[in-house]
Amino acid sequence: MSARGTIRALVTASAVSGLLASGAGARTLDLADPQDAVTVSRKMGCSVKDNVPVVFHWTGRAYSRVPGEPDRHLFDVEGMNIRQCGTVTDPERGTGYRMVSRELMFYQDPETGAVLDRWTNPWSDETVKVYHVANDPVNMHPVYPVGAGGEPYAIPNAAVKGRWFSMPIEVPLFYRNPLGGAYQDYVGNKYHAMEIFDFSAEAETVLDGSTDTADAFVAWVRIADWLPWMKMGGRPGMMVLNATGRMLGGFSDLPPAMRERIEADYPAFTAPPPVDDRRPNETSWTYFKKQIDAESARPE
Prior knowledge:
Number of helices: 6
Radius of gyration: 21 Å
Pfam families: DUF1838
Structural class: alpha+beta
Organism: Pelagerythrobacter marinus
Protein name: DUF1838 domain-containing protein
Keywords: Signal
Number of strands: 11
């Protein structure tokens, strides 16, 4: 039997064993077991039940960092991601899951907390229109107990620390900027950012084979280029965002003010995409480009 075949057989046996154990009563999931690791990963992000919407909600602050001047608290932020998972199977890689989602984040006045429609740039004194984050979809590649190269799945850097389970994720981003031209390989201007997620939950809940979700908390840091709608041009500097949040049961558990704004202005975001959604992912930059292009195409 090939190495991949051996791993697949072990994973299949583990899955069967887990189903038998769950029928007899709850068992403790084992992070060293690839099938259990997939289950833990799924519980930290959504529900082990298919087509059950889950929401992450977060609040935080956004700062500027410019060489030679103090950091400025530019905005508060409030965001949500509504998602669901579906089971997927592969003859070589076993049974896993795929997560699909939509996400919104509003920029708020740091003094009043009001959602901003216009913002005065303190460096240029120009008042600009605010484009909030409205990314639809934000979907992930399937997660299987067997990796693409035949390796057993493991959650990188996941650990149990006392009563807490932690799952840190760093996402370095460096790719062609959709607002740039065709010559970025020669002149630079590629999009450059770092996303840092630190998920945590009570280990007892995460590793309990009878629970559907982990009731997870998240800390999120984003270090990135200026937001395009700020019209900063080539001014040196960057944005630093810091936020914390948690998993909620569903859309109805969001704060009332946010829920009402979504229902009025972003009704598609009251539910996740279907689990078979195959659209390309949206980013803040691609969404902004679509908005600007659409506005430019409108007759005067």
